[in-house]
Amino acid sequence: MKSQQALNILLGIYIFIFFAYLFGPLVIMSITAFNSAEFPSVTPWECFSLRWFNEGKIAYDGQHLAGLATDWRLHEGLITSLQIGLGVVLLSVPIGLSAALVLTQVHSRFRTAFYSISIMPVLFPGVIIGISTVVLWDRIATMGGGGFATELGRNGIFLTILAQTCFISTYCFLIFVARLQRFDQTQEEAALDLGASQTQVFFKILIPYLMPAIASSCVIAFLASFENYNTTVFSILSDQTLTTVIASKVRLGISPAISALALVIILITLAVTITYEILRRREDKKKKKLAAEALFAQTQDSRLLRNGKSTSTIPKSIFVIIFIIIICIFGFNKLVEKGLYGSVCIATKEQEKQSNFAEQLKLLQNNAEVAGQTSSENGEADEKKEYDDIFGDPNLFKNFGGFDAKEEEEQGTSD
Amino acid sequence: MNYFFNKNGPLISTYLLISIGFWIVFLIVIPQLYMLDLSFRPNIPPLLRGGPDDVYTLVHYKHFLFGSETSGESYNYVDIGVFLDTILTAILITLINLCFCYPIAFYIAKVASPNTARLLIVSLIIPFWINELLRSFALRILFAGEGFINNVLIKLGVIDTGINFIAMDVALYTGLNYAYILLMIFPLYNAIETLDKNQLEAAEDLGSSMIRTHFRIVIPHAKAGIASGCTMVFMLTAGALATPVVLSSPNTFWFTQLIYQWFNMNDNWPRGAAYSIVLLSVSVVFVLLMMRIFKVKIGEIVR
After folding, report:
1. Which one of A198, A290, B5, B260 has the fewest CB atoms closer than 10 angstroms to its CB?
2. Domain ranges of chain A
3. Assigned CATH topology for domain B71-301
4. What is the interface size between A and B, counted as CB pairs within 8 Å?
5. Model confidence over A120-143: pLDDT tens digits?
């Protein structure tokens, strides 16, 4: 028994590590979104600020590191992504539905073959689906000779919708197949016997039965389209979606604005999941209650009828939420008290950095002078001139960005 | 065919036929076939297409194996190296993921109480819905030269100067492992969940050790799940592009990056197509191999 307990503790530790591995990076990334430093980091903590959510900042080298609210490329990408997501949902859900329906009717000899073809796109690497679509449509566009087909074949949004539909249809197909397996065929037969036409059966019986599957496949299709990168990066051509914008940002240089974006996405995901979970639990409870009532109606046993006590209990999760809110308020107060929040803190930090920079500059100049002197002692006057040109020019660092008038004064006095 | 029309009625039948035909013919079969065709064509400007120069050739596959004709080496060590590196790493990551996920899947499926299991599954799904790029970005923050891990290690006094995790490819491998870990857990969980708990208790009562129970009962039962998880993880790892773009060091290439380069930077589409075909055939071979080894049908792999 002892060993069993030890094993359980080990398992608990393992599970803890696993979830820490899963969530740790995301949590740290979310924290970096609030640090005012230009590089997303936690440990050299500068100031608590929300600048990456709104305006961003201008770096010393004049590069504009845009925040979330001011980054127009992200906004355009987002709009393109939404368009593509909508298109993919409109195409892939009907396709998945029809494939699943046909699978139930196809002769058993062809069923395996049909099923294999239908799930093949999931097994293809996403890169290849994107490439093959682009290649084919480029050919079609060339053959189209400048007409409508050419325009279509060179439209990145259209191509991306097609390429993504190719494999997202399979996701929908699998969802519908799972739901159709539990479909009671006798319902259909009964409707037909009662004189309904096939079209009526489809719209009055099959579609209502499949409604939950349709809803979940819409959500899944949209999400899969929204977060896809491998296929999109090829098929989008000259346009940009949200994911390709993020990718190019990450490649060019990482900025905490991406952390801010990630935090927003995480929060949306969390909200959706929690809402879904709450709804599901409520549904479960309702079902249980109905079942209990039905049982009571059948047996008339008073022991089965519960009192209405359970409805008045407060869910435990409320306490967690209150606790989190209190922590947030308390922590924010502390931040404000210590002057770690907002523009004042950022200004002082910038000041420090600039003076650091100025000191380093002085040091460099000194070094240059020393080096110049030693080299002139050796009779190499040319070199001295060169050094002077580099470090003596006050305009050199002016164009570099963050220097203001005060620094120039400093430079003047140090010279 | 008549039966089909009678059963569905004219309107619905047309809808079914059109949508399936569109999907299978236009989106699945023709693009792949055309890409196959293109991979055997020379790289010539669009105007010359269909002209006398446009003949079938093996030049791109030759380039993959033997390198360009001007280079002195007998084989194309760079590309083949990248290719083998990608495949072997993908296999390794698949195995690591399998070992890493098996205890978790078993715990959720058989040990945890239903409510805990439900909670764990929901919390597994949350990181899965966050963009792959952003998850890689999170790891990049951790592993960067002045990133979180280095700073913590330096503060603790374990090391003096930062370790360059990205150049050592630690970041890339961790990122690939991190990205697809959930695609291993879910098939395993689904497979183990169907196992009857009585079998486990019977094994325990008959004196079998814990490890033996797993090897003789749980793993054979979860065969389909293991095959499915391994296939998905391998496919996605070998075909990954987002994670290598964010996390790979400047001198490491992933095979998909090579394809990307031929396509978008060197503008040699036929060669990119040929390299894609190579990747695709490896994927197909891997799926067939998995079906053979685990003796499962293709339908059991994708669920």
Report:
1. A290
2. 2-52+272-306+314-337, 72-254, 343-414
3. MetI-like fold (1.10.3720)
4. 246
5. 888 888 888 888 888 888 888 877
